[in-house]
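Entry:
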Amino acid sequence: MKKIINQKCMTKIPILKVISCLIITTSLVSCRFQEQADSNKTSSEVRDEKRVDDLNNNVNFLPTSTTNQIITHDGYVLSYSEKDEQAEWVAYELKESELNYNRNDFKRPFFIEDPKVKTGSADWRNYRKSGYDKGHLCPAGDRKYSMESFNETFYTSNISPQKHDFNEGVWNRLEQKVRYWAAKYDGIYVVTGGVLNGNLQSIGYEDVTIPSYFYKVLLDYHNGSYKMIAFLVPHEDSDMPLYEFVVSVDELEQRTGIDFFPAMNDKEETRLEKNSDYKDWSFK
């Protein structure tokens, strides 16, 4: 009887070992399949997913898209308007650490079409002899932390027709002030674009819309609290102080049809977006 029991025990032990081995093998195979699936993603796809997660989940950042064509790049996210041949908005985070790369003297690339825009972004030739600059929405100077991010700012999905004196004047002053605030407040979130509604003129054979106004919305999130400021700037040069162009986000939403912070707590969103007071922002 003892021998039979011992034999049964002896037969159970190898069986248990086999089952254990099968479980381990199955787990390893499953892990390998997952690793293979992850490895099949391009580095660009992985970065795109992380960028959207960073922007959208951390501070409920991304606006709505009225065109349903959101494009994600390494340094910014945009909503492309095919009928206007430009972005209705470009969104990005500007960190203080990203301002420390001015010594990166990258060669200025040619403007090219955005390979991610399925409908095709504007041909740069629309701007030739038009009398308008290829005005950056996400500035190249804000993306000098890597050559890839710098080069991506030269996609035609990231530009809009701008008068030269506007581009080099008041718009440049506002870009410089955004960098100042990014350094002062340890990073801010930026949404920018042209107001594309209304009876607007265009340039080129693809009818690239010329905005009459450009805007920026800035959001600072620090220690669990928000502050927000918005600018609406007529498309002409001006020597007026920048605070003269401050408007409420509610006004921008009415003009553009864009909901800038749809995932934010409604009470917080209402409080911030109706406010046009700039006292919390240093204009020194």
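Residues 1-13, 15-35 have pLDDT under 50 and may be disordered.
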